[in-house]
Specification:
Blueprint (H helix, E strand, L loop, with lengths): L8 H6 L8 H8 L7 H5 L20 H4 L4 E18 L12 E23 L6 E15 L2 E8 L7 H14 L31 H8 L3 E4 L7 E4 L3 E9 L5 E8 L4 E24 L3 E24 L8 E2 L2 E3 L5 E3 L3 E30 L2 E8 L3 E16 L3 E5 L3 E8 L2 E10 L4 E11 L4 E4 L13 H10 L2 E14 L2 E10 L4 E5 L4 E2 L1 H6 L1 H5 L5 E6 L5 E11 L4 E16 L5 E2 L18 E2 L3 E18 L1
Antiparallel strand pairs: 1-2, 1-31, 2-3, 3-9, 4-9, 5-6, 7-8, 9-10, 10-14, 11-14, 12-13, 14-15, 14-16, 15-19, 16-17, 16-18, 18-21, 19-20, 20-22, 22-23, 23-27, 24-25, 24-26, 27-28, 28-31, 29-30
């Protein structure tokens, strides 16, 4: 069968393989998993109304003013990522009936320094009004991206394949558009520097096709319908078959298809963290009202490697020989001997250095002796993202092996993160301890990508218009509840416990035809909805993918200025991931476009992995009061 991709949608979907500008990348970047000090972590970070600890300043800037002393702290620890992954041969929906099977485990350990800084208290000498003010400067970790996952299984019965997908998208780019209004010319593979050859719009957005061809993952069939088509390295080439077009003219075409079952493996390695560099000022008014301000400079470094492989299993049929083809530099096509496909491997490496700026303000009020109330607000963060990425492809046949590798690409763009507010209350039991509760709301619908260099695009041209539309539709509000307690069991020893619940900000809809539509499915059928054939109605939030955090800790206070705290925390979250894109199987054996009952083109659904990650943190904080 000849495969073509949707003119825009499929190409947008494959854009995730070239850079990190998707809705899910935005969510990963914008979410926080606040660390703080061992004391605040042990209490579940339910410290909005407590203050007095360096770990509270990032959540409520007024926290610095509560301390009746100056202090220096440093926190160090170890983080273990432990991930169990399962496999489904086809994605249905986030809440759908995926048939996951198998379970594989992967883990990774890193050293962390989640907190370091000082808080300097200065007395004003006033008996009333502002009695003291504080200046604090610190680094606070607000997320840890550590992850290592491994999932494997078989492809679906409809023959989904990574290499078939690559051929489909390359053919779609050739027949329709490469996303910038110019055709993908197969002769680009014969150029001496294909990666440095721009399209008609001056963009270099054809790397994914070039590396797939150079690495033997896709091949070109010149004699197919309407002049040519790409097909995957593990697709059986059958034909030629004789057809007649609508005008009665005869032509020949080949059929392509994966002839047997494939074993597919997906792996992901992620390392990096998000740290806020905070400059803070806090003020103490009459020893019962405190307010403060933060200037935050978030700094993010993240490194990621995605790997995917597929190979025939023991049931690969005897007729399933593949014809690898290659193009000489003179433009002539040389067909290799038929042989068995053995293995296709793809690797995508990505790293980014990200800086931003935001501000925050908050207060803590003690209306009566034992009760404390607090609230804070944080502006959206404006980030500048500098990313680098590469792709490699390796394909092994029975007697031939091929390798393709792109240069390292660099790209720069801006991103706006959500804004948030939080409120809390705490009840103290004199010097014996306290209990506290916090609520935080974060609005992810305001996230937005934008070009760093606006002059590179024409008037009114927004390369991120579609992904921003997806985020506005399918990202909503996340709710966080934090509970904490601390009790002094000995004059020098305290014990702590905490719990945090964070809801999933992703949302979905039911359309006017009664179908559940999530971000993945909407993107897949974007042109169908845009044309008005269906529209979104009821908006709902997922309830089955929250983040749960459990923590405990102990604290030691000396008779002098030294103190030390220890915390142990476990954060559990679940996520779905498709290792490649859903693609269009355009024609049947007679050349007719394959359609669903509603008239939409028939899509080959990509597989899906489900990963449950447990992040375990062991943190020690030491400090000195002066």
């Amino acid at each position: 069968m000849k495969k073509i991709s949707l003119a825009l949608t499929a190409l947008i979907m494959m854009g995730a393989a070239a850079s990190a500008q998707t809705m899910y990348d935005a969510l990963d970047l914008a979410k926080d998993n606040y660390y703080g000090t061992a004391r605040t972590m042990g209490m579940g970070n339910a410290v909005t109304a407590i203050g007095g600890d360096m770990g509270s300043i990032g959540l409520n800037p007024a926290g610095s003013a509560v301390a009746g002393y100056s202090t220096f702290t440093i926190s160090q620890g170890l983080t273990i990522s432990s991930t169990n992954s399962s496999w489904a041969p086809a994605y249905s929906s986030y809440d759908g009936e995926q048939q996951f099977s198998g379970s594989t485990h992967a883990s990774r350990l890193v050293y962390t320094m989640p907190n370091i800084g000082f808080n300097l208290r200065l007395e004003t000498g006033n008996l009333t009004g502002v009695k003291s003010w504080n200046f604090a400067f610190l680094s606070q970790m607000t997320n840890n991206f550590l992850d290592k996952s491994l999932a494997r299984g078989f492809n679906s019965a409809d023959g989904t394949s990574f290499t078939s997908m690559a051929g489909s998208l390359a053919t779609g780019a050739m027949f329709n558009s490469d996303g910038a209004g110019s055709m993908l010319d197969p002769d680009i593979f014969t150029y001496s520097e294909p990666y440095n050859t721009p399209n008609a719009a001056g963009n270099y957005d054809r790397w994914r096709y070039i590396v797939a061809y150079q690495g033997g993952m896709i091949n070109y069939n010149e004699t197919s319908t309407t002049g040519g088509a790409f097909y995957g390295a593990n697709e059986y080439k059958d034909g030629p078959y004789n057809y007649t077009d609508d005008d009665g003219n005869p032509y020949q075409a080949y059929k392509f298809g994966v002839p047997g079952r494939l074993i597919q493996t997906s792996q992901r390695y992620v390392k990096g963290s998000k740290n806020d560099i905070i400059t803070n000022m806090g003020f103490n008014v009459n020893d019962n009202f405190y307010f403060g301000f933060n200037l935050n400079v978030p700094m993010i470094g993240v490194r990621r490697i995605d790997q995917f492989a597929e190979a025939p299993d023991a049931g690969w049929p005897a007729y399933g020989t593949i014809t690898p083809e290659m193009i000489e530099k003179d433009g002539t096509y040389v067909v290799g001997a038929e042989q068995y496909f053995k293995l296709a491997e793809y690797e995508y490496g990505y790293d980014a250095d990200i800086t931003g700026i935001s501000a925050g303000a908050g207060f803590i009020w003690q209306p009566v002796r034992n009760l404390r109330l607090g609230a804070a607000i944080k502006t959206p963060t404006t980030y500048t993202i500098k990313e680098r990425y590469y792709m490699t492809v390796d394909t092994q046949y029975e007697n031939i092996s091929r390798h393709g590798e792109t240069p390292i690409a660099e790209y720069e763009y801006d991103f706006r993160s959500p804004w948030s507010w939080n409120a809390g209350l705490a009840w103290t039991f004199g010097s014996l301890g306290l209990v506290s509760a916090d609520y935080q709301m974060t609005d992810f619908s305001v996230m937005k990508y934008s070009p760093y260099d606006t002059e590179a695009f024409g008037p009114g041209e927004d390369p991120y218009a579609l992904v921003n539309e997806y985020m506005n539709l399918f990202c909503g509000v996340s709710h966080t509840m934090r509970l904490g307690a601390e009790f002094r069991v000995l004059p020098f020893l305290s014990v702590r416990a905490g719990y945090t619940f964070t809801s999933n900000p992703e949302r979905y809809y039911y359309d006017n035809e009664g179908y559940l539509v999530d971000a993945f499915l909407y993107e897949q059928d974007y042109n169908y909805y845009r044309a008005g054939h269906a529209y979104l109605l009821d908006k709902k939030y997922y309830v089955n993918a929250p983040v749960n955090t459990y923590s405990c800790g102990v604290g030691f206070v000396s008779t002098g200025s030294f103190y030390a705290d220890f915390a142990l925390r476990a954060t559990r979250s679940a996520s779905l991931f498709s290792p490649y894109e859903t693609y269009l199987e355009a024609t049947d054996a007679t050349g007719n476009v394959i359609k669903n009952s509603d008239g939409t083109p028939y899509m080959i659904i990509a597989p899906c992995t489900r990963s449950v990650r447990t992040l375990i943190d062991a943190i020690v904080t030491i400090g000195w009061r002066f």
